[in-house]
Amino acid sequence: MTSRVPPRLAAWLLRRVRNDETSDALVGDLIEEYQTGRSAAWYWKQALAVLALGLLADFRSHKLLALRATLFGGALLWLLGVVERPLIALAFQWLVLETGVMTRSAWATPLAYPFVILWCLTGVLAGWVIGRTHQRVWALAVVLAAVVQILWNASWTWTLIVASMDAERYRPYLAGTLGFQVILVLSLLAGGLLSARPRGVGAPLGK
Amino acid sequence: VVLLFGHFITRIDEMAEHLGTIELMVLLAVLRLREEAYGVPIAREISSHTGRDVLLGSIYAALARLEQKGLVVSRLGEPAAERGGRAKRYFRVTAVGRREAVQLRRAVLSLSHGVLGASA
């Protein structure tokens, strides 16, 4: 029996993201070392390094799959944008009418919460689909899709950052854009995590 | 972006045909530990000699590269309760790995001869 339980979220992330045979041994090593009195911060540092190095290793050994995942993720997010943009515009018009708030701050009012939740669910679904269609490298696929999403909006976000520095009235737009970006990226990652099939402790070890 | 990044990584891989510092240290640690060479003792061995804390993830990444090059082989032990039900992965240096380590040691000694004296 283990006497100290490692940080639950870090352990859960490791179990979800790195569930191959070698990572099993690595997680076992982390638990063993943690029992010697290492801090939770130490465990987190090690866990994050394992995740980052795992992504890099996946990229090294599956470059074509990574390219396919990027193209697929990009296409899916583009399609999502095509479908959602008019709906979001309609929702915004409705929000402005209902709340009387004329800026993107309307998205911060309680009436907008169902739309924000819907936006989250769309991101989760996209992440799940990307993860499920790239099971061998699902974490890399979802992270690449998130990177595509960030790069896609980088120029617009940068324009808003520059504009906000000059004029205060652009700040709500910047906040709204950043908020939606963060929500979408987190939702994508959450969807990816849900798409993973953890092997679980004590399950048979095999490739 | 992916293609460029892939090309960049491939170039690094090509340049890293020779063993890197961490790979060499891991290889030597595995040699020293003999039958008890798995992640935790390897990390401790390297830490005790370098005085620096090492990431277990980077040790496993180095071990994976060494295994790919045929310099080490691994086997799984039995799952242990104190490790959350996980098995240890034991590593052993192959004859090729031992030869590589000897050659590298010779090269490092030869290169440092007359440069890194007692006064340096």
What this model shows, in words?
The complex is a heterodimer of chains A (207) and B (120). Chain A is 76% helix and 0% strand. Chain A has 207 residues and is mainly α. In chain A, α4 (63-99) packs antiparallel against α5 (113-133), α5 packs across α6 (138-152) and α5 packs across α8. Chain A is globular. Residues 200-207 of chain A have low confidence and may be disordered. Chain B has 120 residues and is α+β, with helices and mostly antiparallel strands. Chain B is built from five helices and two strands; from the N terminus they run ααααββα. A two-stranded antiparallel sheet of chain B has the order 1-2. In chain B, α2 (21-33) packs across α3 (39-50) and α2 (21-33) crosses α4. Chain B is globular and about 50 Å long. At the A-B interface, α2, α3, α4 and α6 of A face α1, α3, α4, β1 and β2 of B.
